[in-house]
Amino acid sequence: MYNILMTYDNTEGLDALLSNKEFKVDIHNKPSQEELKELIKDYNGLLIRSEVKVTSDIIDVAGKLKFIGRAGTGVDNVDKEAATKKGIIVANVPGGNTISAAEHTIGLMFSLARHIPESYKSLKNRKWDRKNFVGTELFGKTLGLIGLGRIGSEVAKRLNTFGMKVIAYDPFANQEAAKNNNIELKSIDEVFAQADYISIHSPLNDSTRGMINADVIKKMKDGVRIINCARGPIVNEKDLSDAIKSGKVAGAAIDVFAKEPPEDWTLIDTDKVVVTPHLAASTDEAQVRIAKEIGEVLVDFFTKGIVRNAVNAKK
Ligand code: NAD
Ligand code: MLT
Q1: Which of 66, 110, 118, 249 is deepest in the core (most CB within 10 A)?
Q2: Which residues have CB under 8 Å from 94's CB, separation 6+?
Q3: pLDDT of residue 264
Q4: C-alpha triplet 47, 52, 55: angle, nearest 5°
Q5: pLDDT tens digits for 79-123?
């Protein structure tokens, strides 16, 4: 019998795991770090979403743990090095929410360009104001992508059809593949200098943490708009807020934050900032797809020894 700890309470799509007699699944919804440290000692497998942080002190006491399943894409909330040292597999579901995240990114861009949230709020307050909500077209503008992986590529594909010129910075992207998809790969400074919209789709790591800050914003076009549906700490929130207040940046659309839920509301309270509470992956389709896949990956790992979707497996 394998003991599995689930740290979220939506079991939709997990039938294969829950009905399997070889597994006992306990749900403890969003445990605190202290609670998790105590709980984890008894479990062979752990299922998490983005709220729970699997830090090295948790891994240190996880004597029986063999598998951490991330029901989602980003694995920046797991200390992968500590897991690897202990021989614990960390697996995610890399493509399960790609389309949802790409669609949400584009929804935020339209909201920003056409003042949809503010005009909605104004009309709901019984004001018929058309003068203050004149927008801009996306057509003919340059979209600069930071990160041309799964989500960045799907965003590019869709916005190409809206008549945007798509340029991208990604140190690992393939020049030929980008060209075939009508995307020009550029240096990061060229993207900053040329883009009307900058949309971030890179992982959070040492090279991207704080990447969008006051220094690089100076290199951007006046009136640039910035969208972040990747990870909050990639953007320095205070610097972005200041740049919007000064008029350098025309607006921003943000789905992810330095701390979630936020502790500092400066950026959220700034005018011309469209916000959603980390919703890019929150669709019925993506949630079920991800739950189903991570459940199958976990079952195969324990019952057949098959390692799939591992982000830390030794070669
Ligand atoms: P991916 O791994 O397919 O793509 C990421 C790309 O970023 C890769 O091509 C990689 O080469 C590139 N990259 C790495 N370092 C870079 C750097 N320093 N500068 C520029 N590019 C760099 O990942 P994905 O599935 O497309 O996810 C992209 C991001 O979106 C991740 O941060 C992920 O956690 C986040 N995400 C957020 C949500 C949400 O709900 N808001 C949903 C899904 C994914
Ligand atoms: C992801 O990385 O999959 C998304 O940010 C959604 C989530 O955190 O669950």
Answers
A1: 249
A2: 73, 150, 309
A3: 97
A4: 100
A5: 999 999 999 999 999 999 999 999 999 999 999 999 999 999 999
For residues 290 and 296, what is the distance between their CA atoms, to the nearest angstrom?
10
Pocket test for ligand 1, best of 188, 200, 201 (most atoms within 8 A of CB): 201
Of ligand 2's atoms, which has the minimum distance to the CA of residue 97?
Answer: 3
Specify which residues 254 forms β-bridges with. 228, 275
Q: Is 50 in the pocket of ligand 2 (CB under 6 A)?
A: yes
Please give the Cα distance from 40 to 97 (Å, whole number): 27
> pLDDT (tens digit, 9 = 90+) per residue, 279-306?
999 999 999 999 999 999 999 999 999 9
Q: Is the CB of 72 under 6 A from ligand 2?
A: yes
Residues 52-66: tens digit of each pLDDT: 999 999 999 999 999
Amino acid at 214: A
| Confidence (pTM) | 0.96
Largest CA distance in the chain: 66
Tokens of 269: 């309270």
Structure tokens at 300: 């195969």
